[in-house]
Amino acid sequence: MKIPTTPPPLREFFEEAAHSGVARARTLRALEARPEDSRYLHWDKLRFLTPPDGLDHRDWWFALKLARSLTRQELPMVDAQGSPFHLTRPDGLLEMCSRIDREAAGSLEASEIVTGEESRDRYLVNSLIEEAITSSQLEGAVTTARVARELIRSGRRARTESEQMILNNFEAMEHIRGLADQPLSPDGLLEVHRIVTHETLPDPGAAGRFRRSDEEVAVRDREGQELHVPPPADQLPDRVAAMCSFANGETPDTYVHPVVRAVLVHFWLAHDHPFVDGNGRTARALFYWVMLRERYWIGQYLSISSILKRAPVQYARAYLYSETDENDATYFVLYHLRVLCRALDELRRYLERKMDEVRRVQALLRRAEVLNHRQVALLGHALRHPDSDYVIEGHRRSHRVVYETARADLLHLSELGLLEKRKVGKKLVFSPPTDLEGRLREQA
Q1: pLDDT digit string (tens) for 272-319?
Q2: Can you give the chain as a three-state secondary structure string?
């Protein structure tokens, strides 16, 4: 990918204005123009657009940068040379934070059919599986979503490195759910990395430890072009400790909105690249950790990686914009908040589809008192995917029940004629009959 052009630094304009009357006049003209800044453009894009009347591109850029500086807030994160990153507060940032507060810490307007206690685990498992798959695919895992879902639900061992990556990500997300009330610590970070990279690194000993000074790490694109060189390894202990303090809200002089703080932890870890591999997956996992710790409970149902995967260049460019424009982390924060809002939109649409599906099955099952919510959900899936097979372990994992309960569910549906049972080796496999919908109507 193309590395963004570094913008003219703000100090150049002040130096020119201090020594030239013409430059001072241009400066005043730029400030009076007050150009609109809702898109928060980087110089790399702005220099190709038509500037407001009376301004050239450099004056336009100066006016925008000066306006941004009025809300500039320095962060405890610094680059390898010790220069701080900073954040500004454009209107769009505040609007998106307000929306995420309402919808991710509050409640989506969804029916109890979907978000009730009985069905919540099923939708959570689906979301965790989706995030595990797409986060791995972002890092190069190669497998189909169908195979990956079967892998997680069946409980079988991974057969390839890609499958192992996906299993690791799923287990890491489950692990993080158990850490929602705990502060982030360097040891906790190392444990997440160990889970994420289990049996996927050329050097197994690199799992769960920081990179050493003799291990050169750089971020490159697919063509091998160097995009980012992280800080040296000897800085990592102090940098990671500072990141954990920030993640836990232990920097009272630097108040940052909790969602923005979660995003910045993602950015911070990816910038520092403290591991030989698995940095991206670990960074995204930490984002979820901070979100859950701040009580954004719906965050665990959102798959940000599924959106990032559709436009990986934009994801990478958000990092580069921040690093090339005087450490302005606002570019990455705005990008990530937009991703979160899109994920909320997709979750809402997903829940609406699920409500329709559940209503359809329940309409066919007026004798629903003989079936439980897990069986109704399975039949709804079978109506949409008539070629699917179901096994006891997969049903158990999907609904987080014990093996005996899952076995009883499937055998009961078989006895009712709503699933067909066969044996494959030592395993019982259940399939929907070709006339499942007709059989449901007969029982209605």
Answers
A1: 999 999 999 999 999 999 999 998 887 777 888 888 888 888 999 999
A2: CCCCCCCCCHHHHHHHHHHCHHHHHHHHHHHHHCCCCCCCCCHHHHCCCCCCCCCCHHHHHHHHHHHHHCCCEEEEEECCCCCEEEECCCHHHHHHHHHHHHHHCCCCCCCHHHHCHHHHHHHHHHHHHHHHHHHHHHCCCCCCHHHHHHHHHHCCCCCCHHHHHHHHHHHHHHHHHCCCCCCCCHHHHHHHHHHHHCCCCCCHHHCCCCCCCCCCCCEECCCCCEEECCCCHHHHHHHHHHHHHHHCCCCCCCCCCHHHHHHHHHHHHHHHCCCCCCHHHHHHHHHHHHHHHCCCHHHHHCCHHHHHCCCHHHHHHHHHHHHHCCCECHHHHHHHHHHHHHHHHHHHHHHHHHHHHHHHHHHHCCCHHHCCHHHHHHHHHHHHCCCCCEEHHHHHHHHCCCHHHHHHHHHHHHHCCCCEEEEECCEEEEECCCCHHHHHHHHC
Beta bridge partners of 220: 226
With a CB cutoff of 8 Å and minimum separation 6, the contacts of 129 are 148, 149, 152, 153, 170
CB 246 within 8 A of CB 254: yes
- Decide if 40 contacts 90 (C-beta within 8 A): yes
Residue ranges and CATH numbers for the domains of the chain are: 10-70 (no CATH), 76-342 (1.10.3290.10), 365-443 (1.10.10.10)
**Which residue(s) pair with 78 in the sheet?**
84
For 282, the token pair is 């670990």
> Cα separation of 367 and 344, whole Å?
35
pLDDT band at 381; cut points 50, 70, 90: confident
Q: pTM for this structure?
A: 0.81
